[in-house]
Amino acid sequence: MGLDILLVDDEEDFALALAERLSLRGFTPHVALDGEQALRAISDCPAKVMLLDLKMPGIDGMEVLRRTKKIRPEIQVIILSGHGSEADEAQARFLGACEYLRKPADIADIIKALKNAERETGTQAGSNGPA
Fold it and tell me: How much of the chain, in percent, has pLDDT values that exceed 70?
């Protein structure tokens, strides 16, 4: 099994498609479709890395990031958002995000960010498959 990733995005089709692509590359994705699901999942999910959208109904990505880092500070958080600004990026990094990608992000860039985050967790999971 590959690196466990919690993928948090309210765009269900996007989240499921990305989860499938990551699975094919040796990762083990877990999907949460909103901030509340994500916060419930971090207690039980073995994920060491979170791919997190910012703009979601209910609890937004910044608040999920803030709470995640209080509950499980070891989780590496990568922001993947189509709506963020430079100020959002600065705030996300201040709150503990290790990477900030803008949609549409190339799958190779997402894989690279995941592998960088994986190194930060000290794990050896993941795949060297094609991007």
Answer: 92
